[in-house]
Structure formats: structure tokens, C-alpha cells
UniProtKB/TrEMBL annotation:
<dbReference type="InterPro" id="IPR018076">
    <property type="entry name" value="T2SS_GspF_dom"/>
</dbReference>
<dbReference type="Pfam" id="PF00482">
    <property type="entry name" value="T2SSF"/>
</dbReference>
<keyword id="KW-1003">Cell membrane</keyword>
<dbReference type="GO" id="GO:0005886">
    <property type="term" value="C:plasma membrane"/>
</dbReference>
<protein>
    <submittedName>
        <fullName>Flp pilus assembly protein TadB</fullName>
    </submittedName>
</protein>
<feature type="domain" description="Type II secretion system protein GspF">
    <location>
        <begin position="169"/>
        <end position="294"/>
    </location>
</feature>
<keyword id="KW-0472">Membrane</keyword>
<feature type="transmembrane region" description="Helical">
    <location>
        <begin position="280"/>
        <end position="299"/>
    </location>
</feature>
<feature type="transmembrane region" description="Helical">
    <location>
        <begin position="129"/>
        <end position="149"/>
    </location>
</feature>
<feature type="transmembrane region" description="Helical">
    <location>
        <begin position="103"/>
        <end position="123"/>
    </location>
</feature>
<keyword id="KW-1133">Transmembrane helix</keyword>
<feature type="transmembrane region" description="Helical">
    <location>
        <begin position="6"/>
        <end position="23"/>
    </location>
</feature>
<keyword id="KW-0812">Transmembrane</keyword>
Amino acid sequence: MNAAMIAGAVVGFGVYVLFRALFPSRPGLAARMAALDAARRRDLEQQRAGTASPGLERVGGTRAKIGRELAHFCEARGWRLRSVRADLAITERSLEAFLATKFLLPAAALLFIPLIVAYFTLLGLGSSVAVPVWICVLFAGLFFFFPDMQLRQEAQSRRQDFRHVVGAFLDLVSMNLAGGRGVPEALMTASNVGEGWAMHRIRDALSNARITGQTPWQALGGLGEEVDIAELRDLAGALALVSDDGAQVRKSLAARAATMRSRELSELEGKAGERSQSMLIAQLFLCAGFLIFLAYPALMRVLAS
């Protein structure tokens, strides 16, 4: 019964895919506009970089082709994937490689169905395909969500580092403003101090702003939108409001830097408290196991008598 249900589900899914391939749905206006925006964004990125993205160059030809097809499919359906794009931007990965990984990992898990069936047959556990199919489907589901979890974890770590760099950047800008520089010159001079990847992103955004004719705070706001850093968006809004008053800008930046440092210290203290609690729980379990180890022989002796 289970094998018949699985076979019927597979046949039904194949008929559905064939029908969708022969009669594709027409994308709406929002989907077409999203596709045009995505194409324009890719052209701008290629013009700025001069070559294809490094993440796409590292993948193979078949994987790159699958990634491009999946990206076109998402764009045609109007799926913006904003959180995923922000995580990919902060980790400097390409959307095509990410989508190809999400597709190929579950597909590889499903390809092991015949091997598991043959292994079960050799062990004498029966020739039914229901159990191997469900095992492979379970692993395929896990593999489908594994790239998202890995990407989210790495993006969270890099955002924390980026916020730390933004706090130091605000202090540097405030010191440059105190030295008599204007806001654009102070921003560019402060960005030339550090050599980390986060400071490179800020420096590139400010350099591109000069080429494209944008204001520096607009470039910082665009970078904040791209990598999903709220502090950069707030900084861009504050600079746009008080860009003409140097003293007010300096006070605002100093206050924001102090706020970010206090917030970072609070987060570090919270993480330290969580780790202390986890260590305390581990010690309690260790003590409980040691007490059981000491009391077990006496208890067994009492019960035996």
C-alpha cells in the first residue's frame, strides 16, 4: 500500500511538472518589474567588478547553469528573497551558488534510494522500498534547509563584526570632524584607516558614491539596505538631516558610537551569562552522575540482602 501511494505521488508530481512545463503561468506585472530590476542590478555589479562574481567562478559549469536557471525562475515568479540576498551580500556569496546548493543536496540524497534498497536487501531486511524512500526523503528535507541554517549563522556572526566596525568608524569620523574636515572628507578619511573586510565594504560604497554622484550618506544607507545593517541606515538618515551642521554631526556620531558600544557590551555580558549558566548545569549533571556512581554499589548491596 505504501509503495503504491509513493508511486502514485511520484506519477502525479511528474504529470504536474509536465503540465507546468507545457503551459507555464504568465508572470504578473510585479514579477516582470522584479526581473527587470534584478537584471539591471546584475549588470551594475558586473560593470563595477569587471568580471563575474567570485562565488560563481568557483562553482562548476553544471552547478553554475543550475544556479542561473533557478535564479531566473525565482525572478520570473517575483520572489525577491530579501533576507537571503542580504545574508548572501554580507557573506559575499552569489545567489546562483546558494540556490544550486539547495537544489543539488536534496537531489543527491534522493539518488541514494537504490543504494539503500540494495543494502537492505543484502541485510535481509526485505525488498520493500518504503523505508529507504522515507529515509532518503527525510535526509533530503534536512539537506534542503541546511544551507539556510549555515548561511544565517555565518551572516549573524559577520553582522556582529560589522556593527563593531561601524562603532569604530563613527569614532573616527567624529575625530576627523573635530579636526576641521567636512562630512564627506571625514567619512572618506575614516574609511581609509582600517583594513578589514567590513571597512573595505564601507570604503567601496563611499568610492562608488563619488563616481555615481550620490551623497556619502546615501551610499551608506544603500549599503545598510544591502547587508541589512540597521545602524548604517540610521546613520544615513541622521547624516542627511544634520549634514550642514558640523558640530551637531559630531555630537550625534559620538552619541551613536557610545550607544553601540554599550549595546555590544550588554550583548557580550548576556552571552557570558548564558555560558556560565550552561557550565553550571553541566557541573550539576556531573555531580549527580558522581553521586549515583557512589550510591549504586551500596544500593545494590542493600537490595540484594
